[in-house]
């Protein structure tokens, strides 16, 4: 009999449910929350309320699209953290309640592990192409920037990580500062395509080892725009494409310098990316380009699996389930998780 896993993701502002059968994705439904746009960032209280409204219809839709009855489910995988506590509480409580009603186990999943394993989501009719272990994952999202060595689906080593802001935060905060809206990553990505990436230079951090820092570049951009606006009040409006392209290039250079170093140090040639920022077209092109130059085997998750989604939680849950892991009923959501 197939192992059919229902995945539930509610760590931030997307309510998502997915069904996978023996590792193959049958459905992946995502309800995004537009309510935060007006505030220029996610409002935690509004996010948890929206999750409460969305969770039942999203799960129903995921089961319906998969053609799976609740009674056919083997286990429920849910995001336990990291994320917003109120948001996590909705998915966690729902997963536990449904598991009691169906008398099936739950498996708790680290959200970041989901991002790192996104390349293992198999889809019916799509040829399977997966990295070999150990591989490196550049995990870049709104809350994290890490280089992870993945020894097997459940054994992760963090080789380097940000010591302050995440790269997604740099995209979002700088976009807000430039009056371009939220979330900043997609807007900057789009404008950058029209601009000259070499026109402006921003200060790069000097951080030892494989760690990152993104708070300095934010300040560098802030002072640059402020000084230019004193000279020309239309500077921002007239140059936004070039500013975005140059700023994005600087972020990608910072990410790539350390990734190249990590690949060299470990001798690993299977390289993946994951997390919301891995949707960035500039970063995707650059990984491919470096890969060709350095003989890497690069694996880029499909765009729909880069931002928050339950398919990645379901696949991570599937690996945990196969390893015999089960979640106790008192497993509480956690906003921060020290390790994988
Ligand atoms: O992984 P994610 O959906 O949520 C978590 O942080 O877990 O990532 C969201 C982040 C945001 O900072 C958003 O601006 C960024 O991913 N993002 C992008 C792009 N699409 C989303 N950043 C750069 N380029 C994009 N195309």
Give the topology string: H per helix, E per strand.
Answer: EEEHEHEHEEEHHHHEHEH
Task: Kindly name the structural category.
Answer: alpha/beta
The percent range for strand residues is 15-25%
The CATH architecture of the largest domain can be named as 2-Layer Sandwich
Mean pLDDT: 96
Task: Supply the number of structural domains.
Answer: 2
Largest beta-sheet characterization: 5 strands, mixed
Q: Distance between termini?
A: 30 Å
Number of H- or I-type helical stretches: 9
CATH superfamily of the largest domain, by name, is ATPase, nucleotide binding domain
Query: What is the CA-atom radius of gyration, in angstroms?
Result: 20 Å
Account of the protein in words:
The structure is a single chain. The mean pLDDT is 96. This protein has 340 residues and is α/β, with parallel strands linked by helices. It folds into two domains: 4-121 and 308-322, Nucleotidyltransferase, domain 5, CATH 3.30.420; 135-300, ATPase, nucleotide binding domain (Nucleotidyltransferase, domain 5, 2-Layer Sandwich). 42% of the residues lie in helices and 19% in strands. The protein binds 5'-O-[(R)-(carboxyoxy)(hydroxy)phosphoryl]adenosine (KG4).
């Amino acid at each position: 009999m197939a192992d059919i896993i229902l995945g539930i993701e509610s760590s931030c502002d997307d309510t998502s449910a997915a069904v996978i059968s023996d590792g193959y994705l049958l459905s992946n439904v995502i309800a995004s929350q537009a309510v935060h746009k007006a505030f220029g960032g996610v409002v935690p209280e509004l996010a948890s309320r929206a999750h409460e409204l969305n969770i039942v219809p999203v799960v129903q839709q995921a089961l319906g699209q998969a053609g799976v009855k609740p009674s056919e489910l083997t286990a429920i995988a849910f995001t336990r953290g990291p994320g917003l506590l109120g948001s996590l509480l909705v998915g966690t409580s729902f997963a536990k309640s449904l598991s009691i009603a169906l008398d099936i186990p739950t498996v708790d999943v680290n959200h970041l592990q989901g991002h790192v394993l996104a390349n293992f989501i198999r889809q019916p009719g799509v040829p399977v192409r997966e990295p070999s272990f150990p591989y490196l994952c550049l995990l870049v999202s709104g809350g994290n920037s890490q280089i992870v060595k993945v020894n097997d689906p459940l054994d992760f080593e963090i080789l380097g990580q940000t010591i302050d802001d995440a790269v997604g935060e740099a995209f979002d905060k700088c976009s807000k500062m430039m009056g371009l809206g939220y979330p900043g990553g997609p807007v900057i990505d789009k404008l950058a395509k029209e601009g000259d990436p070499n026109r402006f230079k921003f200060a790069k951090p000097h951080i030892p080892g494989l760690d990152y820092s993104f708070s300095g570049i934010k300040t560098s951009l802030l002072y640059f725009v402020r000084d230019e606006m004193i000279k020309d009040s239309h500077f921002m409006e007239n140059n936004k494409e070039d500013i975005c392209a140059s700023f994005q290039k600087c972020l990608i250079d910072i990410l790539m310098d350390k990734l190249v170093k990590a690949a060299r140090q470990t001798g690993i040639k299977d390289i993946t990316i994951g997390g919301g920022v891995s949707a960035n077209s500039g970063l995707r092109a650059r990984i491919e380009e470096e890969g060709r130059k350095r003989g890497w085997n690069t694996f880029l998750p499909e765009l729909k699996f880069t931002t928050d989604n339950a398919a990645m939680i379901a696949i991570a849950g599937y690996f945990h389930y196969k390893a015999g892991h089960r979640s106790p009923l008192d497993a509480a959501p956690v906003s921060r998780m020290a390790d994988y």
